[in-house]
TrEMBL record:
InterPro entries: NTF2-like_dom_sf (IPR032710). It comes from the Bacteria. This is SnoaL-like domain-containing protein.
Length: 125
């Protein structure tokens, strides 16, 4: 198995921080995102639109806890996965998980196919 390209580490750091400007820098200007969620499908084109979509999903929370994050290669694709605990200012929390399969050229992501969970309360809450 090949090591994932450096853009994988930069993308994960941008998501988990979160830093949506840094996330946009990981993306090709004409990147295409296709996302599938329970009851919803999303298509976005362009680095700004895709970064804005990630901001909708994980921005605006009081804190983000990284429960799991990893990247690896599968054939000619970059695979990225993360599970986050998102907390608001009232200490309410949800968990989300995203699995991404990306087409990469050089230091930029050209395309993202994403499968995501809907919000779910953490165990014991």
């Amino acid at each position: 198995m090949r090591e994932p390209p450096p853009v994988a580490e930069h993308f994960l750091a941008a998501v988990c921080t979160p830093d949506f400007r840094a996330l946009a820098r990981c993306l090709d200007p004409s990147v295409r995102l296709r996302g599938l969620f329970p009851g919803d499908a999303v298509v976005q084109v362009g680095s700004r639109a895709v970064a804005d979509r990630f901001n909708v999903w994980i921005g605006g929370w009081g804190s983000i806890g990284v429960l799991r994050s990893q990247a690896w290669t599968v054939g000619d694709r970059l695979a990225i996965a993360y599970r986050l605990s998102l907390r608001d200012g009232r200490d309410a929390a949800i968990e989300i998980e995203h699995q991404l399969y990306c087409e990469v050229a050089g230091d930029r992501i050209l395309a993202i196919d994403l499968l995501g969970t809907g919000p779910a309360r953490p165990a014991g809450r």
